[in-house]
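REQUEST FORM: STRUCTURE PREDICTION
Request ID: SP-0412
Submitted by: Lab K.M.
Chain count: 1
Length (residues): 293
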Amino acid sequence: MNFDIDCLRSFALVAETMSFSRAAENVCRSQSTVSQQINKLEEQLKTRLLVRRKGRVLKLTPDGSKLLQFAQRILQLNDEAYSSMADDALTGFVRLGVPLDFFGRNFTTWLAGFKTMHPMVALEVESNQSENLMKRCERGEFDLAFFKQEAGAKRGTVALREQLVWATARNYVPSLERSLPLILFPEGCAYRRFAIATLQDRKLSNHISFVSPSFECLKTAVVEGLGITVLARALVSEPMRVVGHRIGLPPLPPVELVYMFGQKSSSRVVIELAHYLTDRLTEAAPAVMESAA
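STATUS: Completed
RESULT:
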């Protein structure tokens, strides 16, 4: 019995993302094709690999977890063998710095996609505040760093322009009659700097109610109604909502998400990674900017 490499690759991506649609995007196939590939493996092994309900993947079965370990090893060897035989194989080591909010995007899935295409590339990834990322990249501590800055700052190469918005829980309505409780990333974050500066310009009373370097922790604090935060519009999803001028909050400025190469780090592999992540960011950006509620 021989396993189909394409089927194993699709299975591994479904297992990683818990989504047929996201796996299909990664392998450039239709969702139905990926589903058929999983069915083929299940028929071949005469066992269920996934627990599904109404088309959604809930978890791997014990046999699915077992197969995944072998599939990952098989795919790694396959990709390494192919890359080592290719004249234009991309190889190298990249120290990558990214903002804390990247983990509110599909960042880990994007990295997995890059590793699938270029298995001989090693990555070391660190998330931090934008100000720290910029300074450390200038010192050569990163080969490539993404960070946020005010529009027109002219540092680095602009990957994406985003609109900042105020965000709260669905049923939370901030009152401008009292001090606004702010939920923010630690100092050095561009979102934090713009939020506080905007409120100070309008002389609106505020205080820090929750600080975390984790996007998921920050989001949970917002959803639980502990206060209001500032995020790029693309990062606001249910059960958070955008709030704005209708309740009297001042408008926020747009920001630029830029990337910068470290000293002597503009090698082919670093440039390829910068372009790849820029493409993913652009594809994931909202097609039309929604007006704040």
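NOTES: The chain has nine helices and eleven strands.
Reviewed by: T.R.
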